[in-house]
Design goal:
Length: about 475
């Protein structure tokens, strides 16, 4: 048999033949070289740009997640009554708590609060660098969630559901808007946690796999273990780009033949798209991940020159570099260190020292580059902490009223929204449930939360489930 007539070789090397529109789109990802067909591929990619529902205030998101639950009443929500009534019994009936022991007495914050900037917003001494940037912050003191445990609370914060596997907020964002750079993932999560939901917190669930977050390392790794090869096996140093393209074409042709035999196989489609994206990423990703190429002044701004702040500083600087290159949603995670059931003072002090300067540096850098105005920066934990003591010197979980803040991206700078009660246990004024928070974030991105839906298993799903109210008072 002539090698030119070899049916196996034909499967591996055949090029696109005239087919239906759907078939053309299926084959378009495999080995295109002409400009016209490349444009078809770009337009048919699930990551291609999509029109928002209305003019967006923010184009991209950087989510700074503090895993474990920082204490609002020790950071951004001072309570005079806790100072006055320190050591007295809890004056209300305690709601459902994570700890099973009796509630301890009221406990004042061990940190002083000082007013910052022209806005005069009080910030505790835990965050002196962030306090210098408080005029850029929109501080929301009235967020409310449903989960008193880390797993449920984190799932709800990231996906809108505390009990079911649902697409993450980043996945919904890229699904709704696409991304500006087809050679990079639309959603990247840096050093995500492996616990309390793990990959479910940045997954795409029933959305196509192209919208899931791409992890850079994980929370158990040190920066030194990641920065030389942020995405493992991204570069193939043993083959030329042409050889890699030929090898990938063979794999993709086999995948497409398998796909033609199936009615719907989202996992196979996601795999096909992932192969193509990984190949394209080789052209840009190595340069973007080369954080060490930044100037000494920039690295100092983020605290990369200091062992205490190096880790989170590297994450924040990488987040800025990714956003500059068109990545839609970037998440940085400070590991599960904020869960202070005991030893609040020592551990919150060390935790804040690791992130304070990098966060302030990120805000300063984004502003100086003109990026802050259309980049929504979010700072949050999965819940706050109780105003009563646990084990004498710690605090339990509190999802009933806690603080998050946002900056840039169309929110009012130097602004405080909502409030908790006198002791900081329950949200009272302008109560914002997580569904409302998600609806508000999507609105800033130009997406109407109740129209951003995906039909799955006979039902239209959305990030906000069947709830969600946009809090427009925080908009510029």
């Amino acid at each position: 048999m002539s090698i030119n007539n070899d049916p196996i070789r034909e499967i591996f090397t055949r090029r696109v033949q005239p087919v239906s529109r759907r078939g053309m789109l299926r084959h378009a990802a495999c080995g295109l070289s002409t400009i016209g067909l490349a444009n078809v591929l770009a337009q048919s990619s699930p990551l291609s740009l999509k029109n928002p529902h209305y003019a967006p205030r923010a184009k991209r998101v950087i989510f700074l997640f503090m895993h474990g639950g920082p204490s609002s009443i020790d950071t951004f929500d001072p309570k005079e009554r806790l100072v006055r009534d320190h050591g007295k019994p809890l004056p209300i009936k305690r709601p459902l708590a994570f700890a099973d022991q009796e509630a301890g007495p009221l406990m004042k914050s061990p940190w002083a609060f000082k007013n910052g900037g022209q806005s005069g917003i009080p910030v505790s001494d835990l965050f002196p660098h962030v306090r210098e940037m408080v005029d850029e912050l929109c501080v929301i003191r009235s967020l409310v969630g449903d989960g008193v445990d880390h797993g449920g609370a984190m799932l709800q914060m990231f996906t809108g559901s505390s009990t079911f596997v649902r697409p993450s907020m980043g996945a919904w964002t890229v699904y709704g808007l696409g991304t500006e750079n087809q050679d990079l993932p639309g959603y990247i999560t840096i050093k995500p946690t492996l616990s309390h939901g793990g990959a479910k917190n940045y997954g795409s669930a029933f959305l196509p796999g192209a919208y899931q977050g791409t992890p850079i390392g994980h929370g158990g790794m040190k920066v030194e273990e990641i920065k030389n090869e942020p995405i493992q096996y991204l570069l193939n140093k043993g083959l030329t780009p042409e050889q890699q393209r030929f090898e990938l074409d063979m794999i993709q042709n086999i995948n497409r033949k398998h796909q033609e035999l199936r009615t719907v196989d989202p996992n196979l489609e996601a795999r096909i798209q992932a192969f193509e994206l990984a190949f394209r990423m080789q052209t840009q990703a190595p340069e973007i991940f080369a954080v060490d190429n930044e100037s000494d002044a920039t690295k100092k701004l983020y605290g990369i020159d200091d062992p205490t702040t190096e880790d989170f500083g590297w994450q924040c600087l990488l987040a800025r570099r990714l956003c500059e290159k068109g990545v839609r949603f970037v998440q940085c995670t400070h590991p599960v260190k904020w869960d202070q059931h005991v030893d609040l003072f020592a551990k919150h002090t060390s935790n804040a020292a690791e992130v304070d300067k990098p966060i302030a540096g990120l805000l300063k850098d984004l502003k100086s580059r003109g990026l802050l105005k259309d980049t929504l920066v979010i700072w949050a934990g999965e819940f706050g902490r109780t105003p009563v003591s646990e084990s004498g010197n710690g605090r339990d979980h509190n999802p009933y009223g806690y603080t998050v803040w946002m900056a840039g991206g169309g929110v009012k700078p130097g602004f405080v929204y909502g409030s908790t009660d006198e002791i900081g246990y329950h949200a009272e004024e302008n109560r914002m449930h997580i569904h409302d928070w998600h609806a508000t974030i999507l609105h800033l991105l130009g997406l109407q939360h109740d129209k951003l839906t995906f039909n799955y298993s006979g039902r239209d799903f959305r990030l906000t489930d069947v709830a969600g109210v946009v809090h427009e008072k925080i908009f510029v």
